[in-house]
Amino acid sequence: MRQLLAKLRNLVWPARPDPAKSRRIAEVRLVFCGFIAVAIIGTIGTRIVGLAEAHTNLRLAVHGQAASAMRGRILDREGRLLAGNLPITVLHANPSEIMNVNAAATSLAAILPHHNSADLRALLSKKTKYVELDRQLSPKQHAAILELGIPGVYFAKGMTRIYPRGQTAAHILGAVDTDHIGIAGIEKSFNAILSAGEDIMLSLDIGLQTIISHEIHKQIDRFEAIGGAGVILDMHSGEILAAASLPDFNPNQFGLANADARFNRATKGLYEMGSTFKVLNTAIALETGAAEINQRFDVGKPMRISRFTITDYKPRNRPLNVPEIMVYSSNIGSARIAEEIGAETQRAYMDKLGLLDRLPLEIPETSKPLSPTTWRKSTTVTVSYGHGISISMVHLASAIAAASGTGYWIAPTLIKSKTGDTPLKLRVFSENTTRAVRSMMRLVVSHVDGSGNLAEAPGYMVGGKTGTAEKIKIGGYDKKANVTTFAAVFPVHDPRYVIITMIDEPKGQKHSHGYATAGWVAAPPIRPIVEQIAPLLGILPVDENSPSIRQKLMLDFKIGNEEATLASY
What are the catalytic residues? Predict the structure, then answer.
């Protein structure tokens, strides 16, 4: 009974434990609970890290899909696809899960033509959770790798950027990197818009682009040149309908292109355009009253200005009027006219025509013209025939459009104008001036003494001007390397389009009697280009002797001893 009462008392008033024993018990319990807590936290942390790595692997595996799925298309003016997206299967691996690296590498190498066993062993041996093995698996390859059943090898859906037209318009389109970020051309300058999924419609017509590229390429081959370029401009809107640069590259394989192929000769290359500047010199003179059409200038002997001696390719031993100076392409005559214009006025017009500044073109591949910092008398006379100032082909096209067409300078653009849009215009020349200038340009092509006879396209009323200039080198000019240019306007009676062709460093050939000048090299492609693009542009051939055509041009020019008329063209 006494023992029972003692037990009850201990339950109600338990005996005080030994302090040392209690502390030991508490320490053991604390350490035990600590181990349990660490284990729980470690398990949770490991799981979090695993999930994070899985998310990272998934993100890396499908980064192409995430970027490309949203990237907008690039279209030509008719809505034809120039750049788009293509679904792909991405093959990737987690090296830490590969059980037998050598066996896996050998098996995969037999299926993947872009890799050998050594490459794959190196990839599968990396200390990482993710390596990409291939981005464009065919269905057959996909099935074959599935049959291998290699642990640690995975597939993910992705997207890649494609350029279905290959090399066509490559310099304008540009390219993207592996993260689908634009690195050149339209892809770069409109990267934010394209990344947001919006489409871009260019002013280019892929049909015209193909034609001018083909014809320029043929001429490069004929004259063993190092390159060339061509531009077609709508002078009413400023839209660039074609801009070709050769050699070119395939943007689907941008990384394989060398620096020369990537260089855009149409928009970034700067060249002295030679006698094509006589079109501008004549327009400025007529507009300012510095010269009149029938005014004659003495070209009988070389002209000495400072350290320069100006001569003519084919000297004339009599005074020439303004149309004759254009048709015969007289450097001396152009220089005499420029003296009347004056340095200040000439520079002001060069500025109005956009020839002193970088063009506001929608691609990063543009350049600021090279022009003298001080506009001296010697500058004035040499610029009159295209020496001493270097510009791009698009600069020249927009200036020729103003001088021979609408009279307005319009900033060139690579983006298609929207219906109702009116481009910003700067009036530079009057209608009387441009009518006279394009009539003279017609004579350059049609007159027997004109330097551009080989550009004639019967029925399409082509006008133009040749330009041959030695290339600049350190210390002066390279007399063995020319840039040949032809600036064409058609149809001259109702001007709408400017075509610029340029062949870089042509070599004289037997069929050109050893000549490598613009009349032999840059002018001939104009005919096939015009004959092919005119139907696409809705331009029909005309009877150039009809009264309706004759009255749109100035027919009272005197060339040589006879009056030039359309009938004598």
Answer: 275
